[in-house]
Write a structure and sequence with these properties.
Number of helices: 4
Shape: elongated
Mean pLDDT: 87
Oligomer: single chain
Radius of gyration: 18 Å
Number of strands: 4
Helix content: 40-55%
Low-confidence stretches: 115-123
Strand content: 15-25%
Strand order of the largest sheet: 1-2
Structural class: alpha+beta
Length: 123
Amino acid sequence: MKPTQEIEALTAEIADVARTSFRTLFENGERYYYCTLFTTGEGHAPSISAWSWEALEREAARQGEESGTPGSTIAELIKWSYADSPYCCFRDENFDDVKQLFMEVLPLRNLKLTNGIVNLIRG
């Protein structure tokens, strides 16, 4: 398979798994205002995260009780943070095949970290 075809196949698999994972998440009936497909600066395979208004309320209350900070303050601090969401890496096991493809298509020996940005080295 040509490199371009490998990337296209990887992209299609990521989209399919992300779609399936988000659909599963949405079955809980919460009202979502933020959904993201994210990866790290180190070039790891992607995962999903999301926030619903209900999850934000629960998490802000929990963190507020632990810290003594008002829940409304906590909510403002975390409402756009993919990493603070209880749904961060939701159904990450769905991405196992993507992780394998990711390593096959973009082996680490072909990646170079420059100024916090991962670049694919051609060659």
